[in-house]
Amino acid sequence: MNAISTTNLGKRYKSQFALKGIDLEIPRGSIYGLLGPNGAGKTTALEIIAGLRHPSFGEVRIQDQGGYTAYCPDIAEFEPWLSPAEVLEVSAGLLGRPKPVNKINDMLAMIGLKDTGARRVGGFSRGMLARLGLGAALICDPEILLLDEPVAALDPLGQHEIMDLLTNLGSSVTIVISSHDLTEIEQRCDTVGVLNAGELIHQGPLSDLLASHAQHNWHLEVRPPVTELVARLLAVPWASAVSEVSPGVVEINYLDLEKAERELPVVLASSGSRLVSLVQVKPTLEEVFLSITKNGILQAELGEA
Amino acid sequence: MGIWHLEILRIWRTRRIIALTAVFLIVGIGDPLLVHFLAKLIANSSKNGVTVIAPTPTPASSIAAFGGSVAQLGTLVTVVVGAATLTIDSRPALAAFYRTRIQHPRDLILPRFLVVVVFTCLTLVIGIIAAWYETSILIGPVRAADLAVGFGFEALWVLFSLALVAAWSSVLRSVLAVVAWSIATLLFLSLIGTIHVLSAWSPSVLSSSIGSIVAGRSPNSFTGVSILSTIGAIVLLGFSVVRISRREQ
Lengths: 305, 249
Known about the structure:
Chain A has ten helices and 14 strands. By secondary structure, chain A is of the alpha/beta class.
């Protein structure tokens, strides 16, 4: 069941389309990564879902269970004359869900701002504001959490801490993360949507996206030398390309997986090579992302031409 | 922490309350002093045997001077404080924080508006008390009842001015632009007030009404413009709420 779904959702600013009719399907309890290059429409999509912008056409359906949909912008901002604890109090209080002092303190500890004491938010760094933004959302016990670049302002340790925190929220919260940090998205998200120039060019489980772009490549590592092994592999019909990519590591591009799986051990044994490892080359999310967004841009350019 | 607590903290911690108090207190103390010593100041600055005769200070002229300063300096600081408070969308990320936590934008605008109105009126009372005290000891007695009635009309002017600021803040996003357009509109209303047939109906006549009341003008002469200003303030505030509800962040 989807927590959020959109139908033909579009946004037009004068003659410019920010979103060209997208159909998002965000499963309940998932961590959904919304990817795309700058200007793809990620922030616009999140702001429409959060109710901060009106769609030019299409619709958004939020099937919550009476819970709160929280939104954290990429650059969080608060009244500079409030303390972080007061920001959390205001955040919960405005929703009519005031929290006791111990809950506020627990949340400050959770987001790593316990030691800020009575300091006013006006002196906070961008990273501290990002943490506070997340805390201000979490203190409201959200059912849906929309995060626009939540870790962009954080150092690597901070990024890891915050992403750990989000991952540990469990399936009671549906999280939508817009991010450029593809490594974190790959590690944390179970579902992804890829936007490019206002169009949704891919959506589905992350594993499906990676599998659909899997290359037919192995990295075969043996004890050098590899000359005899390479010569024998070049002779087999199921390998289209064979090369030594680093000392002792041979990259094999296979045409027929079944044949390759049956015959590789035979070739290996006949060459007298000593096996170290055999690894299926998997594309990273970054490689897939670059591949599909470049294709998208190319297709758009061809379409315009 | 609820929205009312937040708004009271806002006016206190941003020191806007100090700005308002300082301005009304300074004109409340300074204007009666100036009126009292005006003749001596002019006499001391006269040269070459030229004699300038200043009018004899009266309680009415003292309060009128105070009313004039309230109309100008007081209105200016009220508009600046109002614009800084009411221009909700001047900081988009902060606006998103509030907008995603309230049921309706009126829950955000009305507390901000009312807290500024109440605190501006309270600081105006401090200024009036200062002017009354100074005038009483330096120039002559002033009827407290006249000051109370005058304050009522001045409070209506504050209400109208801030409603106008709220309306502009729903159209513009920059605090500076809201201040500029609000001042321009209030000046335009003052110009309308100089046209004889319209003078009784321009809300700007309320801005220095306290001086007129102390000078003996009947409070009944302000009835029409008071009703018009109150209706105008409600309409402007309603316009602000509707515009901000419809406006995208």
